Structure to design on (834 residues):
């Protein structure tokens, strides 16, 4: 079976449109990262420090009721979130105002008192001191920087410099896209998201490498053809593999997203978004960059 | 047949090894003949899957150094008294200095000799004259302080380990991390709050005499004599639960400390049915206790733990024999935890809980179920897709994927790796990626077939041409996985472990295992058309 037969799509011709789209995505991603850096995004407490608790009640509790109860007892800046299945409530307090270990106990006491007929279980509770959050932020930045550097060096060694830069730009584009989506949907930025982002960085690079491999091969074979044609032909040749592999990885990520449970939900979401964007970027971001850079076919040295 | 003998045997060897390593995980009770070199370790589950508490504690090492300076000051004071050297005052004056104030420079020599002998590691600054007194300062230098801080963390680690052992937690992990952090993992713990209190308690036990000359009710920290301190005795009313605080003024100097204990046990008072802790002193402690009680009959003796007075009974008579009891208004749990911390010894410095992640067992079990279910769905989707899209070749790729999963689980068991929820996600992701390599090869083969090559020639060309691409794509992913492993903690580390093992294994299965299936098949059967 074949999803798509032999195609002759002019991918490079679309670069004006796709560059605009990618530019907008990257811009939103940059804004998102600046906001994250300022702490203005929905930061997970592993970075900001604070308390997060997941409680499972016997009977349904509305956010409204819980918030009123907490405010009455002086817990004012708690963020509440309902988890749809099983009367679960997520309570989060970032550091600064009441980021004290004792607050976790206090909240439990308050809820016990306010909802005497509706007992709950503490399913998970996380308390993180500000110093740990700071350390984690630093470690994460170092981790992202090192892995990016490692990949650039590898690609630069395997291909030539222009391909390396293009691959890294495409990967950065994907990373920015994930941050953009998370920022726009106001989803939590936490350590798991960073893990997903790094995984996607590796995945996106893989995807780009496959396309570049074919371009390089065809460049050697047909030195006389115009560069645009070689690129378009190469992408068309590997198009079905690009779609098939993305599809299988995407299917797995969606399975996690739908059935994996709430702990891993956002993580799987980031992976699914990343796989989709990663596939797009190797065709529409990485390759056009090399084409623009290498104006004339005589200059190709790959 | 001969040309793929080594490949087939390698594949078979890995399968057998994986299964052997997986037996302890899968089988609940190992049979009796399963012994000797056969593996017994299960795949560890991370705390996010089995429930439990992950703590990161910071040891306040500066306080350990300051505490030691206090001890040194007390010791110098005692020695000077013993040698009948007259002095005005000995005490810690800053975070790294002890000052001895003398009346004349003649006694300075004696002090110098004493310090040289007892504390050769400390720096003795030149004596200065000030208002008719001679000041001598002892300084603990940066390097020496570092040594002591380091020792304090090591000692805290040991004490915490003792306490957890005595509390009874199965397979705890207690590790030092960085300079002054201690990481404690308590899998499957039922009462995390109690455990945290037990671990985090400094548990410095001191016996101090009550200063009966000062009226405690009106005393404030500013008005009491310099060698006294104001402490509180907390009592909880067993019926109402109300907490009352009674102030007491005690001598700053501890007569006896917890280091002199040999044992502490919980006992129940037969008369009032009240729990208390019975303690035993070692010979030095017993002698001191005998002397102090003999000299202070009729006075009150405060039992102080971490600057809280537990009780302050009146000394009715001289107590020899080296045993005593700590009573107070505590429950049986409190008393038993107190006995544990006294037996395990005190922490050399207070610890602060910097991070506490607790996952309840129900959420953990839920995560496993959902993770495995999602995994199965993911596998099923991919299997069906591959079978439809690449027909028989797709099934070969599916065999490769199943081999991947078996190898990966086997490798995780063999290495004692920890499986976390993101780790399960990595495995599911790997399912998608494991067919990636095969897809690359298959698409290549299809292209070669379109060029009119024979099945075998197309197969060879497909594998050869896809090889470099597969290597490149795997190495890039491996780079990120390695970085995640180096920097991640807990669940993220689990993800990195699963991912990197998976990538390496996938390289083997896609380049060796599936290939050998095709080779064997094409050698035996003369096929005109490849089902791909």
């Amino acid at each position: 079976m074949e999803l798509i037969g032999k195609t002759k799509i002019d991918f490079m011709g679309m670069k004006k449109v796709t560059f605009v789209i990618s530019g907008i995505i990257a811009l939103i991603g940059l804004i998102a990262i600046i906001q994250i850096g300022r702490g203005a995004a929905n930061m997970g407490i592993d970075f900001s420090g604070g308390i997060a608790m997941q409680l499972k009640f016997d009977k349904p509790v509305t956010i409204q009721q819980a918030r009123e109860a907490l405010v009455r007892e002086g817990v004012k800046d708690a963020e509440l979130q309902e988890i749809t299945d099983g009367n679960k409530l997520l309570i989060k307090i970032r550091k600064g105002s009441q980021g004290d270990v004792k607050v976790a106990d206090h909240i439990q006491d308050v809820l016990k008192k306010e909802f005497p007929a509706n007992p709950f279980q503490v399913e998970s509770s996380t308390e993180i001191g500000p110093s740990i959050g700071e350390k984690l932020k630093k470690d994460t930045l170092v981790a992202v920087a090192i892995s990016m550097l490692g990949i650039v060096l590898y690609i630069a060694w395997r291909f030539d410099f222009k391909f390396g830069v293009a691959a890294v730009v495409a990967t950065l584009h994907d990373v920015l896209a994930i941050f953009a989506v998370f920022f726009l949907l106001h989803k939590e930025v936490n350590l798991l998201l960073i893990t997903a982002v790094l995984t996607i960085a590796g995945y996106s690079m893989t995807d780009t490498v496959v396309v570049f491999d074919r371009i390089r091969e065809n460049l050697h074979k047909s030195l006389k053809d115009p560069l645009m044609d070689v690129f378009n032909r190469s992408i068309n040749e590997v198009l079905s593999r690009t779609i098939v592999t993305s599809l299988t990885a995407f299917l797995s990520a969606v399975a996690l997203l739908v059935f994996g449970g709430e702990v891993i939900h956002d993580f799987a979401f980031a992976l699914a978004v990343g796989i989709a964007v990663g596939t797009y970027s190797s065709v529409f971001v990485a390759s056009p960059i090399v084409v623009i850079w290498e104006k004339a076919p005589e200059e190709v040295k790959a | 047949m001969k040309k793929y003998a080594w490949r087939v045997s390698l594949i078979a060897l890995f399968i057998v090894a994986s299964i052997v390593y997986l037996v302890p995980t899968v089988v609940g009770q190992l049979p009796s003949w399963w012994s000797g070199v056969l593996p017994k370790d299960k795949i560890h589950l991370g705390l996010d899957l089995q429930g439990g508490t992950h703590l990161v504690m910071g040891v306040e090492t500066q306080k350990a150094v300051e505490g030691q300076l206090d001890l040194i000051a007390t010791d110098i004071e005692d020695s000077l008294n013993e040698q009948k050297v007259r002095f005005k005052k000995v005490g810690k004056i800053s975070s790294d200095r002890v000052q001895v104030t003398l009346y004349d420079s003649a006694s300075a020599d004696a002090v110098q000799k004493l310090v040289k002998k007892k504390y050769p590691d400390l720096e003795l600054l030149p004596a200065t004259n000030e208002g008719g007194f001679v000041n001598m300062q002892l300084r603990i230098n940066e390097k020496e302080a570092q040594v002591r801080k380091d020792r304090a963390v090591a000692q805290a680690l040991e004490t915490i380990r003792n306490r957890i052992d005595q509390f009874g937690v199965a397979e705890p992990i207690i590790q030092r991390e960085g300079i002054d952090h201690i990481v404690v993992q308590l899998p499957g713990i039922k009462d995390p709050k109690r455990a945290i209190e037990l671990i985090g308690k400094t548990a410095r036990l001191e016996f101090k005499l009550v200063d009966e000359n000062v009226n405690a009710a009106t005393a404030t920290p500013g008005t009491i004599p310099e060698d006294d301190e104001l402490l509180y005795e907390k009592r909880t009313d067993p019926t109402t639960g109300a907490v009352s605080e009674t102030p007491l003024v005690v001598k700053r100097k501890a007569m006896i400390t917890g280091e002199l204990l040999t044992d502490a046990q919980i006992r129940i008072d037969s008369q009032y049915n009240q729990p208390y802790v019975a303690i035993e002193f070692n010979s030095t402690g017993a002698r001191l206790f005998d002397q102090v009680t003999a000299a202070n009959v009729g006075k009150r003796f405060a039992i102080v733990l971490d600057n809280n007075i537990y009780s302050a009974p009146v000394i009715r008579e001289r107590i020899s024999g080296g045993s005593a009891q700590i009573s107070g208004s505590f429950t049986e749990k409190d008393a038993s935890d107190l006995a544990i911390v006294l037996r395990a010894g005190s922490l050399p410095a207070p610890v602060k809980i910097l991070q506490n992640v607790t996952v309840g067992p129900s959420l953990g079990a839920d995560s496993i179920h959902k993770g495995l279910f999602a995994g199965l769905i993911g596998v099923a989707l991919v299997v069906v897709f591959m079978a439809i899209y690449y027909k028989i070749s797709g099934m070969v790729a599916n065999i490769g994927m199943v081999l991947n999963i078996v190898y990966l689980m086997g490798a995780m068991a063999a290495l004692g790796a920890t499986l976390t929820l993101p780790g399960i996600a990595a495995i599911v992701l790997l399912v998608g990626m494991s067919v990636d390599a095969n897809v690359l090869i298959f698409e290549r083969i299809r292209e070669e077939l379109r060029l009119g090559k024979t099945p075998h020639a197309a197969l060879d060309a497909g594998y050869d041409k896809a090889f470099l691409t597969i290597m490149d794509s795997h190495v890039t992913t491996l780079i990120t996985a390695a970085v995640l492993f180096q920097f991640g903690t807990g669940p993220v580390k689990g993800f990195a472990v699963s991912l990197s093992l998976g990538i390496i294994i996938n390289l083997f299965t896609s380049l060796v295992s599936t290939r050998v299936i095709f080779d064997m098949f094409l050698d035996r059967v003369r096929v005109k058309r490849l089902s791909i």
In short: Chain B touches chain A through 70 residues (CB under 8 Å). The CA atoms of residues 275 and 330 of chain B lie 7 Å apart. Residues 361-415 of chain B form the longest helix (55 residues).
